[in-house]
Specification:
With 234 residues, the chain is α/β, with parallel strands linked by helices. The chain has helices at residues 48-60, 124-128, 173-182, 195-205, 216-221, and strands spanning 6-13, 20-24, 35-36, 39-41, 63-76, 81-93, 104-107, 133-134, 142-146, 149-150, 153-154, 165-170, 186-189, 209-211, 226-228.
């Protein structure tokens, strides 16, 4: 799946106050001085969850008890291409601390909007502000709109991160890619895609994708952030 991309597993660690942990990359390291979700390179033949647990044990001294996939993102830096495989760590043992001397910081989900995160990590902020299951047409932080076209193509979707996020309801992978390019905050499918096509879409758009007609575990295996229930679609 990762091809020529450096496969990195990382954790968005959630504490009892619903804050998220981020870490500052030390100066002298690649991309030093940037904030990131803690984690590291997946070893050859290592399972994703196994790699996540190992990295968080080595980097910040915690034992992961419960985690779930959140989003997979691809990013090209000047000198390397990264596949960031981000998990939401919902239960753990231990007090996080920077075992490599790195600074750590707890942030609210809203605080993350203004943190200078590494470019590969930034799209994950939207996923962290969304549920894993969309079962209502609107939440306190998002609204759903249908894919629309006019003579010039898809109507522009406002992308102001301080406003309510806008999910675009799409009936195909082609529409989903167009919506992503137009500034959608996230993609909501109203059609059941084959697993391979869903996984390909999740790799392409670098946005949270909500799958239709599958269970959560299937959606997560394909790289989606969650699922949508039909009753939620306006």
């Amino acid at each position: 799946m990762s091809g020529d991309f450096l496969h990195v597993v990382a954790g968005a660690i959630v504490d009892p106050a619903d804050r998220i942990l981020i870490a500052l990359r030390p100066n002298g390291k690649h991309l030093g001085g940037g904030w990131e979700f803690p984690g590291g390179k997946l070893d050859p033949d290592e399972g994703r969850q196994q790699g996540l647990a190992r990295e968080l044990r080595e980097e910040i001294g915690i034992e992961v008890l419960r985690s779930r996939p959140l989003i997979r993102l691809k990013h090209h830096y000047a000198d390397r291409a990264v596949l960031l495989d981000l998990w939401c760590v919902e239960e753990y043992i231990g007090e996080p601390r920077g075992l490599d001397g790195q600074q750590i910081r707890w942030c609210t989900r809203e605080d993350l909007l203004s943190v200078d995160l590494l470019a590969a990590d930034r799209p994950a902020v939207t996923a962290l502000r969304l549920p894993s299951v969309i079962d209502s047409p609107a939440g306190s932080k998002y609204e759903l709109i249908r894919f629309e076209e006019n003579e010039s193509g898809l109507l522009r979707v406002p992308a102001n991160p301080l406003a309510r996020m806008r999910g675009v309801i799409c009936g195909s992978a082609v529409q989903a890619n167009a919506a992503a390019q137009a500034g959608a905050s996230f993609i909501v499918l109203n059609v059941v895609l084959p697993a391979q096509e869903l996984a390909q879409l999740c790799d392409q758009v670098n946005l949270p994708v909500y799958a239709a007609g599958v269970d959560l575990n299937t959606a997560w295996r394909c790289g989606a952030t969650g699922i949508v229930r039909c009753a939620a679609l306006p």
